[in-house]
Structure formats: structure tokens, C-alpha cells
From TrEMBL:
Membrane spanning stretches: none
InterPro entries named among the record's database cross-references: Class_I_gatase-like, NAD(P)-bd_dom_sf, SDR_enzymes, SDR_fam, ThuA-like
Domain of life per record: Bacteria
Name listed for the protein in its UniProt record: SDR family NAD(P)-dependent oxidoreductase
Organism: Solibaculum intestinale
Organism phylogeny: Bacteria, Bacillati, Bacillota, Clostridia, Eubacteriales
Chain ranges of the ThuA-like domain: 15-204
Amino acid sequence: MRILVLCDDTYHAGETVREGLLPLERDGVSFVFCEDGQGLTNQGLASYELVLLSKSDQRSMEDERPWLTEESLDALETYVGEGGGLLAVHSGTCYDGNERMERLLGGVFLTHPKQCPVTLTPCGEDELTAGVSPFTVTDEFYTMRLSDPQVKIHATLESEHGSQPAVWTKRVGFGRVCCITPAHNPKSWNISAFARLLENAVRFCTKPVGTVLVTGAGRGLGFSLTEALLRHNWQVVAGEYDPKVSFLPKLSEEFKGRLWVTPLDVTSPQSLQAAKAFTARTAGTLDLLISNAGVYGRHEDDSYEEGLYPDEMLRDYQVNAIGPVLLMEAFAPLMEKSGCRRICVVSSEAGSIGACWRQNAFGYSMSKAAVNMGVQIWFHCLRPKGYTFRLYHPGYLRTYMLGEKNLKADLEPEEGARLALGYFLFDLPDEDTLTLHSFDGREYPW
């Protein structure tokens, strides 16, 4: 587990946080410290399971300039929304006046009196307070404003000045946020009950977000989606069509316990049922289904004068159109008990009749138009049951659909996966209308 720690500001030395986190260091856990807050990007954050924020909006004790830019806040919001964890400790809640940060955290620090004895008291025993006994320490008594009614308070802080929330959690998209208000002084960090609270909070923020099945996960976009989801704390069932050319073994050791690989041919009802049984045994409930497997006939780029290849066209139909429809039939029942129930289908602008410009690629284009219709029908079947859908054109990717990597394409699969998840993992203002959404933000006509 890699944890990015943002610390050090005008009133809070980064060294206090560094020393306070020592009890959490163990095999498999590493802290990367950033004391100026600079350089937060989507790509950079993707390599961390958790961001621990113990820093107000100053670059350091010596530099009072703000560190939080609109771009870094964009990256942080996207990171959490896609499944990343955010743990704000003490000065990490000091963002009064920044509406976006307050919305992300669920509340902000307002003021505090002179340091005094404060007592942290759990509201009950749950995953945040398990093993945490009440403790008293001299510290700052933070007065907070909780602006999100959905936050859950796990512990309070009492002093001669009254009572305030001390620990709370909330969900942001598919990610988790936890805020802890005490810990101004090194002595607070060194209390065993506080160390246990921190450990529980880290575990809460980094536990698997949910379970997703990705088809065509062996390489290309499917592999990049699988890797990105694993790094965002998802459990992934990866459907592998051909193990001889699969990149999945590269991830198996790093994500042991959160990655399960199963043979899957979406054109075979027997293969689909076997993969369904495997998923039910290993993961149980399925939260997210990504239909990514696809083919592009070797002769699709030929002109009609050179002749058409009906066998290839039928293969396109089997994989690109019928496969996703059968996939939903097989796996939708595993999603019944999920609180998410989202089905994402990788289609193509080639399936848009209204935007068609091609004079070839008959089989591929027709199969993508057909899958669009298939998803629309499934949408009518399952939307009333709470399922949500994403129909998506990923762009021209450097994938292996023709056997070798297509270096003429525009986007690497890793970038394609990042853009896709930015659409797959966020709620839409209107979930009751199905559209063909493009990686560049456009909506394609049917």
C-alpha cells in the first residue's frame, strides 16, 4: 500500500506527522511525503491507495502561499470519486472559504480556543472506533462546521468549551473520506488509542470499493481498465480470452487477493456460465460490469471492391453485439443486491448511423450499431430496477484488435482507461436517458 502524505504548513510542522505515522509503518505499507503540496495530477495520484492530508492551505512553515490550485483540486476530486481514499487529520480540515474542499470533506474547521484538556469519546463501536478507548490529552479544541448531512459521526471531542465532532466519514462517488480533528501536538499522535484510530481510518479508506467484472481484460483497454480499477481499491474479476497473449500475470502478485482471473469467451454461453459461477464463489455480489471485449475483422479496412468477408462479419457480430447482450443476461443477477448496479458497455462511434462517414468496415460498424440497440433494450428492462448504464466510445486507441499494437491510433490504452473511468464511475444528472457518450465529451446521434 502506497500512501501519499501531504503535511507541513504555517502552524503545523511536517515532522510531527512523519513521527506520528511511524507506528503504522509495516511490511507492505509505504509513506511518500509531500510538504509543498505541488504536482497533484490524475496520473500521479493513481499510484496511491490513499491520500493523507494533514496540511492547511499554505505551502510550508516558511512559505504562506496557498498550495491548493483548481487543477490539483480537480485531480483530488476525481481521485476520490473514482474510488481513492482521503484521510484528513487536524489541519487537513482547515479549508474554510473553499467551497469545493468543504464539499469534498463534508465539513471544515472554523476556530479553536487556547489549548486545553480534550477528551475523544467514540459514539459506539464500529469499524472506525473498534479497539479505541476514550482518551484525554491537551490539544486544540477544534470548532467545526459540518455542511454535509450525509456524514456519519463516529467520535466526539469534549472540553470545557463544549462538544464537537472529532471523527466523521462520508462517501464521494466510489471513494471514502474520513476526517479526524485532534493531533496538533506530538503527544496526541503517540497515544496508543489515537494510533489505533488512525489504523482503523486507513483501513476504512482503503478497503475495496466494490467488485467489478471486466471482459477482454488481457491486454489493451481492458487491461488498462483492470489496472486502474485495482489502483483505485476495486476488486476485479478479469475475463481473459487468450492467456497466451495476456498481460494479467503482471498484476497478479501485486494485487493478490483483489484480482481474480477467469477464462471468458463472451460468445459462449457455457463460458459465460462458468465465469458467472466463478464470480459468485470468489466475489459474491457484483457492483460494476464493464463489457469491453471486442474484435475488428482483419479485412474491415478493405474497400468493397476487394470483396467482403462474411465469416469475419459474423465474428464481429458474435463478439461485439451478441456477446455483450449475453454477458448482461448472465451477470445482471449477481448485481441484484448491490447498491451500485452499473453496466458499462464499450461501443464505438462506428455504430452511430447519424454520424456515419465510412465506406468500409461493414461488419464492425453494423455490430456496434447492433450492440447500441441491445443496450437500449436492456436499459428498458433493468433501469426500473435501479440499474444505471454507460454506453461509451473510447476513441481511437493503440490496442491489439488486429493482433499487433496499432501505433497509428491517437491514444494509449492507459489514457483511454483514465478517460473512460471518468465517465463510468460518476453519477449523471439524468440517469433515465441512454446516450452514446464519447471520450472527448460529445454525445453521438443514434
